[in-house]
Design brief:
By secondary structure, the protein is an alpha+beta fold. It has helices at about 35-40, 40-45, 50-60, 70-75, 80-105, 110-115, 120-130, 145-155, 160-190; strands spanning about 1-5, 10-15, 20, 30. The chain contains 9 helices and 4 strands; from the N terminus they run E-E-E-E-H-H-H-H-H-H-H-H-H. It starts with a strand and ends with a helix.
């Protein structure tokens, strides 16, 4: 355990209590473990279990580039409840995708370009592609690179929110369900 001695300003290791006063003039404070393991975001998300998985999948479902599959695989590998993981992952990714839908639904092109980093040309391409296909295309919002654009375009087009939500939920559920089987297949190899 790393301990910082205020009077001497050097590190020493021992197991002193958090705030101890061995002598009147010395204040000893226990510092947290600052190893790479304890501050790495993936490690924190794995320690938070289902809530960490929910956060990871929410970030991946929104416009932020984040790989939630590694967190899901990590939790499944250590023996977390399978359906708890699938439901937490699906709920987080679904809500992240719906946040993109509602940002598109606001219809402010300046916000879409500034915060979501989607250019006006890409948005127009997405709208042109989705024209006539409807809200069922939200099923494919789990696809990397185009999923966020699909969600924003559907929101901008004011597609039926209930059909969009239903097809988006089914697509994201199937994504994590299939990933679960892939994870268990890889674990079975070892």
């Amino acid at each position: 355990m790393a301990v910082w001695n205020v009077r001497n300003s050097f590190l020493k290791t021992d197991n002193l209590p958090i705030f101890s006063m061995p002598r009147r003039e010395v204040l000893t404070v226990q510092l947290p473990d600052l190893s790479l393991k304890s501050i790495h975001p993936m490690h924190l998300l794995l320690e938070w279990s289902y809530f960490g998985l929910f956060i990871a999948t929410f970030l991946a479902g929104s416009i932020l580039p984040f790989s939630s599959e590694f967190v899901l695989s990590g939790l499944l590998a250590v023996g977390a409840n399978t359906w708890g993981c699938i439901l937490a992952a699906t709920a987080g990714n679904f809500l992240g995708g719906m946040s993109c839908y509602y940002l598109g639904h606001l219809g402010k092109l300046e916000w879409i370009e500034k915060y979501l980093k989607v250019s006006h040309q890409k948005l127009e391409k997405g709208i042109h592609f989705l024209n006539g296909k409807g809200a069922m295309m939200a099923f494919f919002t789990f696809v990397p690179l185009i999923g966020d654009l699909l969600a924003v375009s559907l929101g901008y087009m004011r597609a039926n929110v209930w059909m969009t939500a239903l097809s988006m939920f089914v697509g994201k559920f199937l994504r994590y369900w299939i990933w679960m089987y892939v994870t268990f297949g890889v674990i079975g190899l070892f």
